[in-house]
User: Which sequence fits this backbone?
């Protein structure tokens, strides 16, 4: 019987583990992947953070890069591995938690690799659960190669011929940039009316300005926090206008329906598409936690990560408390808060 099990060994789970270690708890971090940092390594090859290294520090250990450097996914994964080694965090990989049930005074975590028991559980699986594609994607001909951004690595995965990128977020525009840079005919499906913020303003990084202005610290419960969280997030550090101005990039508006090789968009009907990259986001999935109360958006009911279920905590959710909750460097504030709430409960210790 453990004091805590942390489900998820990326930044959220490791930051929480740091504080559990400091408090002397008997705990274990479990993850379904085969190596630390796999959640980052599984993303597309050219991915880099839009936050510079000095704003990516997890609790107790600075990111190992010079100030102003924008780390690659490989560097982030390497940081996680060093973090685990540095703090001797107990991690059990290749452990897929299929169901969590409250049994009297503890939780039972069922896994094909064997069941686990703990008095408390921290869910640190992040916001990216089920890759979402519209229902009509199933009606598209098998001759058209389709891939969600979650599985996209690089343009070499695509077959010859025109491509379409669907989605107007950071991922969508970064992938659009990469796919279209070698003159491939590329359709863009999504709004072109997006706010774009540069990575640097007047010699200072965008994150420096965010920090000085307090932008990342507005609570989701404040008027301004609610306004920011309900608005479309800006695209950061990508030359959207320049990409859309390329002769081989054609903006077609929203994709509405499809049938075999016929793709219907707001602006035209397309019949020459050979590849589609769906950068259409994710849907949350917490159905595997028995008895959990969910909000209308599918995320758990909680206050700053403390759920309505005794002994169950969450970290790493979008807007767990502030906009900064979703960032690598911002996770430490949420982890410290949860650690404080845990310290107030003497019953969590054996």
Assistant:
């Amino acid at each position: 019987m453990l004091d805590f099990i942390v489900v998820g060994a990326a930044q959220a789970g490791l930051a929480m583990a740091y504080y559990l270690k400091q408090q002397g708890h008997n705990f274990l971090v479990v993850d379904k992947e085969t190596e630390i940092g796999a959640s980052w390594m599984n993303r597309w090859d050219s991915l880099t953070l839009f936050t510079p290294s000095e704003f990516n520090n997890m609790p107790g250990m600075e990111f190992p890069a010079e100030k102003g450097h924008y780390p690659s996914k490989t560097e982030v994964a390497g940081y996680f591995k060093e973090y685990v080694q540095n703090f001797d965090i107990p991690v059990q990989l290749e452990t897929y938690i299929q169901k969590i049930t409250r049994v009297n005074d503890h939780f039972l975590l069922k896994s094909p690799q064997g069941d686990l028991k703990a008095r408390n559980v921290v869910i640190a699986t992040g916001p990216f659960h089920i890759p979402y594609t519209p229902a009509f994607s199933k009606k598209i001909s098998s001759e058209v190669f389709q891939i969600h951004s979650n599985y996209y690595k690089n343009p070499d995965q695509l077959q010859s011929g025109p491509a379409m990128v669907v989605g107007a977020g950071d991922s969508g525009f970064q992938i659009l940039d990469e796919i279209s840079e070698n003159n491939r005919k590329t359709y863009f499906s999504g709004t072109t009316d997006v706010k774009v913020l540069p990575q640097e303003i007047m010699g200072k990084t965008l994150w420096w300005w965010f920090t000085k202005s307090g932008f990342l610290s507005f609570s989701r419960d404040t008027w301004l926090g609610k306004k920011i969280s309900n608005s479309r997030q800006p695209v950061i550090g990508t030359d959207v206008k320049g990409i859309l101005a390329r002769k081989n990039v054609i903006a077609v508006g929203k994709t509405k329906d499809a049938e075999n090789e016929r793709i219907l968009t707001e602006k035209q009907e397309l019949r020459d598409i050979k590849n589609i990259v769906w950068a259409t986001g994710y849907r949350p999935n917490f159905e595997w936690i028995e008895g959990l109360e969910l909000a209308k958006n599918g995320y758990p009911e909680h206050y700053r990560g403390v759920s309505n279920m005794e002994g169950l905590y969450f970290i790493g959710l979008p807007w767990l408390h502030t906009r900064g909750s979703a960032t690598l460097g911002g996770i430490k504030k949420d982890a410290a808060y949860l650690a404080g709430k845990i310290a107030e409960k003497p019953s969590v210790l054996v």
